[in-house]
Amino acid sequence: MTSKLEQKETPQANGAALPIVPGDCLASPERGQRAEPAEFLGPDGTGVEVVVLESRANAKGVREEDALLENGSQSNESDDTSTDRGPEPASPLKETSFSIGLQVLFPFLLAGFGTVAAGMVLDIVQHWDVFKYVTEVFILVPALLGLKGNLEMTLASRLSTAANIGQMDTPKELWKMITGNMALIQVQATVVGFLASIAAVVFGWIPDGHFSIDHAVLLCASSVATAFIASLVLGMIMIGVIIGSRKMGINPDNVATPIAASLGDLITLALLSGISWGLYKELESKAYVNPLVCAFFISLLPIWIIIAKRNSATREVLYSGWEPVIIAMAISSVGGLILDRTVSDPNFAGMAVFTPVINGVGGNLVAVQASRISTYLHMSGVPGDGPETAPRKCPSPCSTFFSSDVNSRSARVLFLLVVPGHLVFLYTISSMQGGHTTLTLIFIVFYMTAALLQVLILLYIADWMVHWMWGRDLDPDNFSIPYLTALGDLIGTGLLALSFHVLWLIGDRDSDVGD
After folding, report:
1. What is the mean pLDDT of each run of 10 residues along the chain (515 residues)?
2. Could you identify which of 70, 115, 410, 467 might form a hypothetical disulfide with 74, taking C-beta atoms 3.0 to 4.6 angstroms apart as the criterion?
3. How far apart (Å, rounded) are the C-alpha atoms in residues 59 and 179?
4. How many C-alpha atoms does 92 have within 13 Å on its Cβ side?
């Protein structure tokens, strides 16, 4: 029996016509059911094996096949018609390099300006008394700014995937996802904020051998309060962005994570600076305030745990989602130690304004890529499902950046945004007279080299990590982004500090490094 590559259509109950595809095509449990092969006789009398692939429509009347954001060669225009569940929203079917870049550009620039604002804030507050006399606060900066990767970006990726596969189409499903996920990130924010303060105390104590219990309680209160309030505000913003994106026919994967970062750095750093400054002022006259602040936020933990535990959508993450956020916090804290040791030296005070920018841009871009790859994999099944998703040992750089795959195309687009984006952000910093560094040609070359190398490494690691986690039966939405953004903080801070040291050694006095 021979098989011919031909398509036929079969009517469905919802009025949509679905293709009949060749018998060797696979249908995942998520996308439909594979019918038993049947034989038909072609015009020439030869046997033709066909398989009917039923397509499950989501609540909006959009087939999951159509929701998959693949390249144009994957499928033709959707034949879906509207259903009795309401009007059909515009669902992106094809994505060219231009369409990917167009959707990512505005959120990327918005996120970048948010990191510029955060850098300007850090450049100002580094001279405050609390940063001068409790220098461990600098160690908290990357760890707490990294919460947008540990929590908000993970939330955005998780909700983007749920929205793309039709799990947030009804009011009941939407409310369930909102309440469960908001409670979950409050639990994670409180715990991670507490652990970040412990890491800051330890990393601050090891080099100097000096320990102050008052400073330790101050760090704990500042960290927990900042993490809780920032996660609450940003989580609500993320939910609104994702719902709005779906209604406008925009892929949430392209916009949610950058917008999470656009306000994330600024809000978190402003809260950390303000809260730590206020608690530092109360340290001498009202020493009991700091312990009370810690006790208040920690006492709320059981409430959030109960809410998240009752929700099936977040129960698994509540039990198994701690490893990535805690390890990511530790990685970011190492970057914070580098920042603390660098900006504490008057020769490198100008590094403070650029650190949130280079870390934020790298984290934003790799989070977009990881979220896109994760959504692509979720469209074909569940984690660990299918031989085509077996964990890869190590992809080649050519397959990551130069193949015809849609994820490779998006990696090229994101990488090409680095130089023009950073040039805009550097010009903005210079125009606002931020930092202690003049933008000379040699400084820009060193800075761009560090930024390109950071994003190149992150995109390559993302390609391997997301597929590796998927093959290991781990949901990349919950596990990959915390690691990637934390690595972005560490790599970005390390490369930037190295650039400043090299510039100081070669005597680039025109850039005022060291003034």
Report:
1. 43 43 43 45 51 41 39 39 39 65 83 87 88 87 75 74 75 82 90 90 78 88 92 85 80 70 80 92 84 92 91 80 84 87 81 89 88 83 60 69 83 92 92 75 93 94 89 81 88 92 75 54
2. 70
3. 20
4. 21
The length of the chain, given as a count of residues: 515
Q: What is the pTM of this model?
A: 0.68
Task: Using DSSP bridges, classify how beta strands 17-22 and 8-11 pair: parallel, antiparallel or unpaired.
Answer: antiparallel
d(CA 385, CA 471): 7
Q: For residue 107, which amino acid is it? A: P
Three-class DSSP labels, 243-284: HHHHHCCCCHHHHHHHHHHHHHHHHHHHHHHHHHHHHHHCCC
CB 267 within 8 A of CB 356: no
233-289 pLDDT tens trace: 888 888 888 888 878 877 776 777 667 666 778 888 899 999 999 999 888 788 889
Output the CA–CA distances (angstroms, integers) from residue 54 to 156, 165, 205, 378, 501, in the order listed.
30, 16, 62, 18, 61
Residue indicated by tokens 């964990």: 391
Contacts of 39 (CB under 8 A, 6+ apart): 1, 47, 48, 49
CB neighbour list of residue 129: distance below 8 Å, 6 or more residues apart: 277, 280
Distance, in Å, from the CA atom of 271 to the CA atom of 54, rounded to the nearest integer, reads 51
Q: Give the whole-angstrom CA distance, residue 456 versus residue 460.
A: 6
Domain positions in the chain are 97-513
For 443-491, write each residue's pLDDT tens digit.
Answer: 999 999 999 999 999 999 998 998 888 888 888 877 888 889 889 999 9
Task: Output 72-81 pairs: Cβ under 8 A, ≥24 positions apart.
Answer: 72/96, 74/406, 79/9, 79/16, 79/17, 79/18, 80/14, 80/16, 81/14, 81/15, 81/16
CA-based nearest residue to 462, from 339, 377, 357, 385:
377
CB 93 within 8 A of CB 75: yes
3-state secondary structure of 31: coil
